[in-house]
Write a structure and sequence with these properties.
The protein has 443 residues and is mainly beta. The protein contains 3 helices and 33 strands.
Length: 443
């Protein structure tokens, strides 16, 4: 969700009005009956400004236009640290142990579960639009990890995570096995998260069935579409890594379909599964050729290497997101009849993690090998990398429990603009005179 601009800063004091939705019934004898339609208020906000530059006005006006008047929601963070009492946090789902707080903590903060003060660990940032978080447990370890180091299987029934060559992350993940601690992975770019519980240490990668059709090119080169090149088999001469092999020969254009010569076929894998791709490569008539094998739109997770005078394996890993084209691309073949040799191509689902990874379950110590929660739109290819945390789960609030807090700091308010159809001139009049009005929403 978007965040209301923090600069320019509105005049202080600004108006924040609590709306409680109380109902009062009057009786003929003068008695009253009062009912409360909600446990927590919503908050309407009125903001006025002084001495703005044209750049400041443009920023506020563009934000209003981007929200399409009253149509789109956004968060407003109060600009100053103040005491806020009785703020709604969430209704517990019985699974998660970490929740966004409705603000940024700057002092004493108490979290309640069904009205009772509860011990939590306060986590700085990581919430939607930078809000702080509360964890019903203790953060044991945390760190960051690069995209190309982290292997994630997000498919139901085969959930696991493997930090591979990151020794610090691997040690923390494996240490979490004994108590089935929680693990949370956060995309650095947009803050979206996935959350589960460590079950067991990996014992070595195992793989599902081969998905590539005609991966060894024995006898012919069927099942492969060819662009900027031709593909033939060495049959019956043999000489491959195992029996025959494929010969990829450039047509010499180097620019067919705007790219280097490649071959492809369509392969459908289960969404969310971890896949490994690769094959064996060797020099043809031009040495030291770069070859890429991949099945993602941007080439992330590709197997990449340079051919030599002997057969060598290249391998890559990626999490399947539904892109079905499987490519083998010779990056440098540009002259007609230049060749590179390929053999034993593979694309398989990874079913279990290596010894540096751990399996994941949806509940502490459970048997269902799923992630407890994967936020919609989580980016498995975030170039900026990921933050991770290992959390010793405490008493997770039961499903339906109401979590609230008293917070000293900057309150986060979910809202919309209160007015539609404002001209730029009328919007400026609101800025300087009656104020820009934000309509508070539940949550």
């Amino acid at each position: 969700m978007a965040k209301y601009p923090e600069t320019p800063v509105p005049q202080y004091p600004y108006e924040t009005m609590q709306l409680w939705r109380n109902m009062v019934s009057q009786f003929d004898d003068g008695r009253e009956q009062r009912r409360r339609k909600g446990t927590f208020p919503t908050y309407d906000v009125t903001l006025t400004y002084n001495g703005l530059t044209r750049t400041d006005i443009d920023m506020l006006w563009n934000f209003y236009q981007d929200r399409e008047g009253t149509f789109r929601e956004f968060y407003f963070f109060t600009p100053f640290d103040e005491s806020h009492k009785g703020l709604f946090v969430a209704v517990a789902d019985g699974v998660k142990d970490t929740y966004d707080l409705p603000g940024i903590v700057a002092g004493a903060t108490t979290v309640y579960v069904d009205g009772l003060p509860t011990a939590v660990t306060l986590l700085t940032g990581g919430g939607d639009e930078g809000a702080d978080r509360c964890c019903f447990g203790q953060v044991l370890a945390s760190g960051t990890i690069a995209r190309d180091t982290l292997k994630i299987s997000a498919a139901d029934g085969v959930a696991f995570v493997d930090p591979s060559s990151d020794a610090v992350a691997s040690a923390a993940f494996l240490a979490a096995v004994n108590n089935h601690d929680a693990i949370e992975i956060t995309s650095k770019t947009d803050g979206k998260k996935m959350h589960g519980y460590v079950k067991a240490a990996g014992t070595g990668e195992t793989y599902g069935a081969e998905r590539v059709k005609n991966p060894t090119f024995d006898a012919d080169a069927t099942s492969w579409s060819q662009y900027g090149c031709t593909l033939t088999s060495s049959y019956p001469a043999g000489g491959g890594h195992n029996n025959d092999y494929g010969i990829l020969t450039s047509k010499g254009s180097g620019e067919e379909h705007g790219t280097s010569p490649f071959i492809l076929q369509l392969i459908i894998m289960p969404t969310g599964c971890l896949c490994t791709v690769g094959g064996h490569i060797k020099n043809g008539n031009k040495p030291n050729q770069e070859v890429r094998i991949y099945k993602t739109f941007d080439g992330h997770g590709c197997a990449v290497g340079f051919s030599s005078s002997s057969w060598s394996e290249i391998r890559g890993y990626f999490t399947e997101t539904g892109y079905n084209s499987f490519y083998i691309q010779a990056m440098q073949l540009s002259v007609a009849n230049e060749t590179v040799f390929i053999d034993e191509i593979f694309c398989r689902q990874v079913l279990t993690p290596s010894v540096t990874g751990v399996t994941i379950t949806s509940t502490p110590g459970g048997d269902t090998q799923n992630w407890a929660d994967i936020e919609a739109g989580f980016d498995f290819y975030d170039a900026a990398g990921y933050d991770w945390e290992i959390i010793r789960h405490g008493s997770i609030p039961v499903a339906g429990a109401v979590i609230s807090c008293d917070l000293f700091g900057r309150q986060r308010i979910r809202c919309r603009f209160a007015e539609d159809n404002l001209s730029r001139e009328l919007f400026m009049a609101r800025i300087y005179r009656t104020g820009i009005k934000l309509k508070g929403l539940k949550g």
